[in-house]
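STRUCTURE:
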């Protein structure tokens, strides 16, 4: 159901609205008319611009305006893209920027509208870096001026950054830096499920796991109070259910179920960031490490959470056992799991979505990479605000993420819980499989489960030659056998 709300109940957010189940073709022209804005910059997804008619349809609706367009923004909002947007705002007297894309697009545009009001026309990288406190990786709020250009964000992902007055960009050294102003959030956020439905499923699911990470790390923070805990207990199940419904809708090619799942996820993603923005409860090590894993190694935003969050939960269990019990109970309740550790439930969820779950799957394998990520994590904007481990602790988390189960043990659990008595002793067989010995397991499982388990057998049959590939096939096979149907 269409719903217009104030983005957040905070000072500085008056006149900053959001619309759920929006129609971008109707709501963008209406907002521009209300603002009297006719000089417009579109910053749009390359895929939407080249593979669909959606951007062309919008350009036709705005034919009476003076339009500029930038197609494409690099992952993690590189400074070069931020500067290109800001320079266009400054030189073309842009009155409103319209961002249609993922979190990299919204962050680039938020920073650009801040800097276009703060720095002289034609500013450079050195001017941007001069604003940043290099110890904390943060520019502002002092020294950053309030934006004077309107910004509309139409997100295609669940990273939820559009709700925040913080935004991050990546400098030439691969360091993610953060920029903030109390009025730095978009003027209008449009949650249009049909626009979001164009997002490739693996990108959407990755951004959804990122939103789960927001909830989980907030709850694990010692500063999380009773009101925030109640909010998370309500919101996290909705988000997990929405991701499940989206996944099921994709599998069934059911558009109605897919759009419903998207809408649920969009509401859930806002709820995930609310404790940080409204109650100032910061996220934890998974976010700090994930920021730098993304910028240093080029790992996609969201995939960083898929890989780092389970390992972080495992490492921080002694400090957050009570919160992790709440998280575990939510996963078990919503998804029918019977896990005993929050880290295992999170890892299983990632694998069931078919997402990468360890560093080798994103080509992060060397000790040199891990040390660079650890060093940069310690100067991340969040590192000074959370119980951040020292470098040895960060490296331990990264080592866990490098070696954590990628589907062999997990696959045995999935098969046992899903197919029950049909598999008999398969889990015990799989538990003892290592290296080349795994080649014969596929035939064993196929025979044990019949045609429903064939994809599982195929997957585990490949263990000896490629654990990662096998893990993905296991997840797919279990879905076919009825795990989420």
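SEQUENCE:
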């Amino acid at each position: 159901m269409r719903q217009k709300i104030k983005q957040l109940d905070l000072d500085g957010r008056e006149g900053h609205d959001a619309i759920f189940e929006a129609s971008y073709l109707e709501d963008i022209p209406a907002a521009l008319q209300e603002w009297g804005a006719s000089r417009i910059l579109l910053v749009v997804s390359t895929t939407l611009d080249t593979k669909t008619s959606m951007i062309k349809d919008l350009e036709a609706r705005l034919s009476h305006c003076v339009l500029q367009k930038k197609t494409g923004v690099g992952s993690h909002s590189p400074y070069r893209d931020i500067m290109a947007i800001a320079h266009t705002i400054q030189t073309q007297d842009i009155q409103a920027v319209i961002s249609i894309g993922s979190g990299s697009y919204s962050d680039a545009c938020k920073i650009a509208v801040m800097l276009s009001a703060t720095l002289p026309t034609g500013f450079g990288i050195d001017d941007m870096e001069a604003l940043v406190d290099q110890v904390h990786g943060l520019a502002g709020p002092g020294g950053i001026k309030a934006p004077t250009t309107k910004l509309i964000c139409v997100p295609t992902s669940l990273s939820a950054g559009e709700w925040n007055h913080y935004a991050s960009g990546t400098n030439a050294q691969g360091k993610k830096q953060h920029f903030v102003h109390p009025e730095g959030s978009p003027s209008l956020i449009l949650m249009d499920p049909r626009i979001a439905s164009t997002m490739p499923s693996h990108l959407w699911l990755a951004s959804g796991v990122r939103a789960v990470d927001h909830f989980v790390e907030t709850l694990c923070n010692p500063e999380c109070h009773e009101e925030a805990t109640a909010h998370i207990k309500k919101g996290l199940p909705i988000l997990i259910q929405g991701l499940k419904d989206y996944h099921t809708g994709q599998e069934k090619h059911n558009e109605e179920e897919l759009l419903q799942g998207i809408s649920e996820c969009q509401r859930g993603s806002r709820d995930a960031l609310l404790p940080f923005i409204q109650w100032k409860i910061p996220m934890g090590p998974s976010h700090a490490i994930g920021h730098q894993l993304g910028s240093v190694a080029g790992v996609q935003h969201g995939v960083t959470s898929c890989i780092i969050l389970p390992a972080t939960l495992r490492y921080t269990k002694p400090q957050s056992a009570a919160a992790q019990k709440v998280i575990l109970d939510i996963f078990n309740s919503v998804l029918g799991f019977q896990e005993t550790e929050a880290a295992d439930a999170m890892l299983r969820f990632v694998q069931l979505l078919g997402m990468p779950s360890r560093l080798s799957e994103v080509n992060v394998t060397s000790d040199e990479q891990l040390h660079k990520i650890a060093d940069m994590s310690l100067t991340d904007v969040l590192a000074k605000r959370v119980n951040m481990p020292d470098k040895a602790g960060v490296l331990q988390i990264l080592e866990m993420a490098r070696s954590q189960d990628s589907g062999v043990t997990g696959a045995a659990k999935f098969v046992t819980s899903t197919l029950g008595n049909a598999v008999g002793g398969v889990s015990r067989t799989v538990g003892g499989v290592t290296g080349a010995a795994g080649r014969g397991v596929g035939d064993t499982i196929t025979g044990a489960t019949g045609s429903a388990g064939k994809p599982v057998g195929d997957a585990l049959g490949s263990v000896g030659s490629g654990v990662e590939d096998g893990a993905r096939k296991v997840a797919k096979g279990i879905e076919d056998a009825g795990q989420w149907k």
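REMARK: Residues 408-480 form one domain.
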